Amino acid sequence: MIQNNLEIYYDTEADILEIFIGEPSECFFDEIDNDLFEGRDEKTNELKGFKIFNFRKRGGMKDIRIPLPANVKIEALD
């Protein structure tokens, strides 16, 4: 079974939400919607995360819909 980490970081000053999937790697980001960027691994093209600019202006979590890979495991860290 593949186990991935999901990390979420919000920069309040810049109003950017970042979501990272799996182990960190060198990525490129493409804009897939206004202020919504999808990050992919430079070597494998694997989906590695998203960046959402103007997060609060977009309505915060209520209006964000991002498809995640099926094998993402979310767990709390102690």
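Second entry:
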Amino acid sequence: MTEQPPITPGKIIEQLGITPITLRRWCAYHKAHLSPGANPGEGVTRRFTGRDLEVFKHVRSLRDQGLTTEQINEQ
């Protein structure tokens, strides 16, 4: 099976309808559930996987339901 190319931050922002600041916050808040490319370190561009996108979709859904960051991370 071939590896999928990384997803850029711009694509994540576009697909989810969120701001760049929200994406950065979610990367920090939900780091344990994301690939290493989502939090690569200072000066390195974030790159996301398809799984990261699915995590963010789930996060958005749970936030829309009023759950807190802690409650989301428990799920």
